[in-house]
User: Fold these one by one.
Assistant:
Number 1:
Amino acid sequence: MNNKMNDETKWYKLDNTANIFPVVSNKRISSVFRVSVTLKQEIVQDILKEALEETLNYFDNFRVKLKRGLFWYYFETNKKSCLVEQEQDYPCAFIDRLSNNQFLFKVTYFKKRINLEVFHAITDGGGAINFLKSLAFNYIKIANKNELSESTLKTPSIDVFSDAEDSYIKHHKKVHAKGLGYKKAYHIIDKRIPLSIISTIHGYMNTTNLLNLCRKRNVTITQYLSTIIIWSIYKEYLNGQPSEDPINISIPVNLRHLFGSTTSSNFFSILSVGFTPTKEDYTFEEILEVISKQFEEQLTKENLSKKISLNVAFEKNIFIRFIPLFIKNIILRIIYNKSAKSSTSVLSNLGKIDVPDEFEKYIDNFSVLLDITEVEPVKCGVCSYGDKLVCSFTSKFETPYLERAFFRFLQSEGINVIIESNGVHNENL
Amino acid sequence: MKICKNCKVKIMSNNNSCPLCKTVLTSSDEKVTEDIYPIIKTNLQKYDLITRIFLFISVLGAVLMVAINYATYNGLLWSVISTALILYFWSIMSYAIKHNINIAYKFLVQTISISLLTILIDYIMGYTGWAVNYVVPEVIITANIAVLILIIVNRMNWYNYILYQIAIATLGFIPLVLYLLGIIHEPWSTTISVAVSFVILCGTIIFNDKDVKNELKRRLHF
């Protein structure tokens, strides 16, 4: 008790996009995503716990609990110690802000894999990967003390000392707040798995092969993969027929590189690419051309900067600021529900994950799993490590038509795919 | 590793069917692959059973009392009181017992719900004003003293309770408003309630420290 007098409680405002997550999250919409790393050795709980304590010292924005103010939520330093458990739940489960010693993330392990499940209010995929990498390095350091060199052991396992700046505020330009128009998108309707069960299917492939294929078609991996998702939905669920509503895929983009930020809070924006089939029997190439063009139009610094500025203008609006939190929650929920309907599915590509040479031989692969919601019941997370690229689908559907079409298409393009799943589709429910 | 002859993809699994299309798999080698996910036990039976039983009993009780009240109606709507008591029971269940909720917040919720409950009972029994005259001011006085004790016992964490302390102290001025409006006739309980609240607010201002100021800054940031 006594030492509490000395260290003052620090607090942080939620960053611009983080504000939405505490409002809309519940058992059905968890807003929790998972990034995992698989090592080449079995995970030991005590070492993981020690590594986590060490890692937390460098990430102030993870060592927090969520509190309610009169006008906004805010984070406050969490002085409790964080728990480490063996994995015993389906991925991306809701993190109750009063459970788990009030931490807003969870570290679990299973055999050789370490999972980091993060409530989206504290950070995005980019920030989570940085934390997970640091955690993995610290684990490797403790578990393999004798093998590693003195200098490796001494260097802190981070790239940049954590800064929790709100990069949205830093990089916004003054604009007048106005509502963004949302148009309803096509939604897949199919029989769903009961209860809180979530199916997970990973598809591993060779990065270089995929990259060569994309180069030949003159597109990026994200453009190519998102087109395959649209193509699969068009073929499997629309049966190649016209649809009134567009098949829209939301693509989160990491803004750190583009704006030169090193924040460990959220800093991403969402592109929305879509295709409305107006006649029968489009070819894959036709759709790919439409989609990659949309990418090029939207993925410009001006466009993204405008998006950020509009969101910040909303937060900074004097009327919005002085509305008490519980009324603000109602408004935000309405906006969120409207915007969520404008997307059919999500593809999040965290890109290539680099690790320093000395740790490479201990790490097998990384993967990312996204939380699914009522309106977006299937999502895809992509990341690559070394020469291995993994597309991980989380889904609420009883039959994995989308995943099947997706991986069969890749296989037919000459990319060898290895499938791994959590076995939900093999069970008799 | 196994191969699905329909999907043409390789499959790492101990299962005999393809997770994508349920085709029976042919094994290319006999090596057993490790499971990558744990087997998760979803307990269908215990699923919130106790809560559901209590909820059902609550509904059953409320309906039963309304029905009996209606059948034997003699001018007294006593079933409203019993239904309100059931709702109060749920307010206790969801706030008072739950772990990890700020104790001062629990006091605040209890003060408000007990006040409303007694006013309702008074109203149903044929209004005589005993609730607003005596119960409400006394409940507020008790809550004020309770928070004060809480703060004295747990001085280091005073800042945690400050927002609710101020809220409860502010409630103490409601009897004064009601007195001025002529709803309350009994001056004594009102006077004590206002005096206690006033002293506590003054004390808060006099004794507040950096922690308290910071907490207010956090809670009220806009």
Number 2:
Amino acid sequence: MTEREQILSCRPDQLLLFHYGELDSADRLWIEQHLQQCAACRAELAELQLFLNRLPEVGSELGPAEVRRFGSRVMAQLPSNRRHFSRPALGWSLAGAALLLITLNLPGQFPSEVPQPPKRSVKMSAEQKLLPDPDMLQNLDLLDNFDLVQKLDRLG
Amino acid sequence: MNPEQEKLLLAQVRDGNEHAFEALVNAHSARIIGLAWKLVGNRADAEEIAQEAFLKLYRGVSSLRGESRVATWLYRTVTNLAIDHLRRQKLKRKIFFFRQSEEEQDPLESVADPAASPREQLLAGETGRRLARALEKLSTRQRMIFTLRHHEELPLKEIAGLLKLEEGTVKAHLHRAVSTLRKELKDLQGDQV
């Protein structure tokens, strides 16, 4: 058996798990015993460990001042703190808009409570429905002189 | 912070106490930003991801009950946010850069980070840059698993739980990740350094 074949039969993935301490006790014992007999696996494990130990760290730890700065940044994003910023801005915006409307004399363009024409027109149309004959409305003035008409009729 | 202190703070946060939340942020932020930094490879994105994770914690604090630890919850959230971030980054690069070869360096990476401290600049040396490029050769999942196991020293069982994968799948990804890195960084092996 060549060294390469020996390594394959030894399962290098087990060496990786052995390095990271991820084997259960039975497998770990098996590997430890195997390493005592297998020079190829010993060399492979040494090479693997050298490689992994040479890998540099990525990133670095934040100092206390950086942690505080980050904390403040997160706190500023909380909904309650964001409202604190927006409330005065909203108030000033509304005040400005009101002042502008007064200056331009625009309130007249908004509906007022005084005339209420739609309600009145609804009532009138209801009254019209109650009348049996709309043509009678044209002769309502004659009713004011109804008594006189009757007297003239009696006198012949 | 011990579990009892943490439970007390969580209860206070649920009652609307923002100082309690700030205490949680200060207790966990160094580690959480460090994790995000390792996962995505740069500090600015790492801080964005960490911030998003803490805001998610604040919004979802009522759902964090029982034995759930804040650190575990944050680890899971940051890992998921980092996966999304890396996938978006890969997609962006495919769309915008049209690099002729995967070997070619991303132009954004060659720009020095103006916010980097001298220590950071030292850490971001040639080997660090080469490792960053080699990590990009891995699939997002392989990169997560390798970083969580190698740099964060999380047990594979815990990684499997975080990523909702079978432990055997995690082992296979780790093995493939290390094989790729060894191939990409051949000169870090043996006596060639």
Number 3:
Amino acid sequence: MPIAEQPESSELLTRYLLGALSQEEAERLDERSIADDEFVLRLDAVENDLVDAFVRGELSGESLERFESVYLSTSRKAEKVEFAKAMLRFQERSAAAAVQQSGAKTPSGARRKASDDHATWSWLAVPRLELQWTFAAATLLMVFASAYLITKNEWLGRRERAAHEREVAAERRATDLERQLSDQRSASASAQKELEELRASVPVTESLKTITVLLLPPTRGAGQIPTVSVTPGTDRVTLRLQLEGDDFPSYQVALREPAVNRIIWSSPRLRARLEGQAKAISVSLSAGLLKQQNYIVELTGIPTRGSKELLTGYVFRVVLK
Amino acid sequence: MAELKKDWILSPEAFRRLLRWLDDGSDSGGERYLEMQRRLTAYFSRKNCLCSDELADETLNRIARKLDEKGTITEVSALHYCYIVAKFVFLENVRSVKPIQTGATELRNSDSATRRAGGVSEIGTEDLREKTFGCLEKCLGQLSANDRELILEYYRGEQRAKIERRAELTTRLGITMNALSIRACRIRNKLEACVDKCIRQT
């Protein structure tokens, strides 16, 4: 099976990061860790989870030993561990703050309140020095309570602002979608008209024979590879790539032959279009370009500014009839 | 590899040519260069080279020199060419009489025992830990509300709870697990770079 066809398992990548693979296997992955955009992202994700597992004390046995003796052998890795520790600390603090906020609503909080009520009245019976201590403690409590309320107020304010930002973004997205839908409708209408004119002007026998195939976004795990059956006389193959999201103003599509790891065709810049419920990109290739084998269609996002990003790869099989 | 000029110095023009070549027709504003430097540093680091930053720079310098002399490199893709040169740099480093260093051994002897004795907390100093935490809070504040929420949710919890939370996130966001992991990883890379920069500045 060609190397780029099946994504490596997390276990294999973890063993790679821990230096537990054979030299041959490691070298194969070394190459991809520099030359394969998608692989780099997968490796980064596995590395982050591995470092987090170490920080949380979830590693044991050989994994822990290798992590300490092999992975942590350079300062760069130690920095990653420091970062993971800081993340864990931040999350623990956030969780503690959340528990503190909900504490007053729990039964134990109610019990504490009852006990506090009892103390409110019993202070009248204590000697003078203890009374002073009680007042001091009460003052301290009030200071803490004020600080807590101020912090909570700020936190609520931040949450409210974040919610507002999300709401505005959602509204903007809805407006954009409506506009795109309207554009799509008018484009479809004019395309329909153009098609009818074309049909009227071109004899049926001269029309091109095209095969269209819809490729769905790849999912984790082994799935059925879509097959494109190319019959004799086929002129063009249209690939409709369904997108998971439309995060870029334009895209580029490249067709890779995994057997030789070579790009054999690439598209100009393309825009995503709404097809049914999802956004999709369509490309049309000459059927003569295709041989009986597997191919990967690589989808790259092109931002307005910044570098291109390889987003995903759609695998399909060609069968020549 | 062909013999290259010994006294070659990276000029601004040669550097711009390298950036253009790595960008492959688009203008990434230097981001592609930084990404390649990060990948190369990680590669040398995985190979247990202590001076991984320097070796990454050496690799990119050699490519810039080659581009300066040949005009362009078309035999293989830019990414593959970077790997080929990096491999040469690594092998030269291993074989050189005075290696820049490939030794995990020394660090193992000095640091590992300390780490085992004291656990994770022994890796960095208290000062660095506080700086890292302060910078993390600052950098989290610079993320968009959505990205901040996503990264904190994605990396929260332990083992099974984490897996379940991630599954919930995919449902809530309407994306696949693969897309979610890539999105979270991009945000984390951005955050780590921000924290790294912040620590160096302070």
Number 4:
Amino acid sequence: MKQRKMVFATIVSLVLFFGAQAVFAAPTIKIGVAGAHSGDLASYGLPTVNAAKLVVKEYNDKGGINGQKVELVIEDDQCKPEIATNVAAKLVSTKVVAVIGHICSGATKAALGIYKDSKLVCISPSATTPPLTQSGEYPNFFRTIAPDDAQARLATDFLVNDLKVKKIAVLHDKGDYGKGFAESVKEFAEAKGVQVALFEGINPGAPDYSAVVNKVGNAKVDAVVWGGYHPEASKLVQQMKEKGINVAFISEDGIKDNTFIEVAGKYAEGVYATGPTDTSSNPMATKAIEAHKKEFGSEPGAFFLNAYAAAQALLNAIAKAKSTDYDKIVAALQSEYVDTVLGRITFDKKGDIVGYGNSLFQVQNGKFVVLK
Amino acid sequence: MEYFIKLFLSGTAKGSIYALMALGYTMVYGIIQLINFAHGEIYMIGGFTALILGGFFFSKGMPVSLVLVFSILLSIMYAAAFGFTIEKIAYKPLREKPRLSALISAIGVSIILQNFVLLSQTEKFLPFPNYLPEFAWLLPYKEYLNSTQLIILITTAIIMVLLTLLIKFTRMGKAMRATAQDMHMAQLVGVDINQVISLTFVIGSALAAIGGVLICSYMGQINYYIGFIAGIKAFVAAVLGGIGSIPGAVLGSFVLGWTESFGTGYVSSDYEDAFAFLILIIILLIKPDGILGRTRRQKV
């Protein structure tokens, strides 16, 4: 009996002790970090963890947000959708206020439904599948990377608004990446009333493309769009110019490689290419990379800057919202411009990043020059 | 009509590219019934040698015409030496073994050579300078045919004629035909079959080197893998025309080139390969030995 009383007393005192602490010290703001931290794709996910740690450390050293310290809850989804849903449920039950992640598009999509129901903001540094934002299904989703079709959109806008083309030929190498780009350009161009006279896949590696080049010449198009990589692109531009077909040639970052200019030589002049904007010269980015080297003793990996910017944007939004309320954070993310390692960014209503993305390049005198 | 002519000519140009390689395949097969899978790699090595030598000569201030002649001649010699050595190392010891052994050995040589170039040179695509002359009189017709395509076409024709003459009318040609008919019998009547087979490989490799230099000049680029892709199509062309037959290889290449070109021009380039193999299947169903292939009687 006496023993029982002791146990009871201990429990009561423990509850009082911790309860008291919960009352007197401000609770931490918990932020989830989810992504592949083990398995094949760990190299995509781990840099995000490091980026989040660095940004949080910076905030906590300055006293946290609104007087509260920030705490990270790190969970591994291995880029697998079925694990991602478990991770999401776990993060929700840990009462995080927002999640940085996930890394892979498939896992992100699986987790997003759970976050949406629990009213949690989710901000990914790397999930690029277009529908995640464009479907409008996930108002709680944001990303600090341009979606897959952004390059196609940029290329199409340039063709329509600047080059004023009426009729184009779209060629691709039948690969996932090149064909995806080609299909997006076709869709956007047709929506803008441009006629897609040709839409064809060619065999990568073939010694000769003169038949398809003849076909392009015969179709009398204003521009040729190429979805694929540089070895075929250099043969195409060479054979086009040799046959006197002097129309604009535009492609994506598959050809934005100096090898393209070396191989195609004089035929590369005037070729347009889209590609991610180079932000590594941003002073804040250089500082972040230095901090990573100091803290972890290595070069940062994939999506580090995107993740760093995601963490910066999220913490800034929580600070500006002066609250961890979902609606206020979302409003702050969409209205506040914030200086990040990717430059001055904000988010549009769908959750895609504004102020960072792709640039349009043109080959001029043997170099890729930024046009816009 | 103009479009038809353009497609016809680009098919012809493409066919002559295939033919330049198919000739080497068919010649080796005709004499020793071996599909020399390493042929594509000899072609690639020929191209690389010319690239390296051409760059060297050019940097020494040699005029372009001499650079062209020297780099082609030396790369032919180098490739011929490669062919000679490969035959001695990888095929000769297997001559009396089942034919499949030599075939596997040929695939092995192909993989070794690709990786040799990958490791010793580069995995990147390199620009290939075009040292071939440009004919001013052809410029107004550049939409139809350019100088390099014309040179490839003429070279193919010359090589086809020379090879046919060599095999039909010279003493060595007679020895080759005898070896092709029956190796042991030829040996019994005094033909030095080792010499004949070596010569076959030397000629085949020299042709591959010529093809390598011309086709790389046309494409403007080179990479360790080009031989494999071009080799497969050339092989198809050789089978189509009747493997073992010299004019057959050229005809087969043109048929393949035209099929691909018209298929691309009038239907879609998506189905280029589908057309190529469809025509192969149709022709093999009608004439199992290829267009000009002779029906071989089963030896008893």
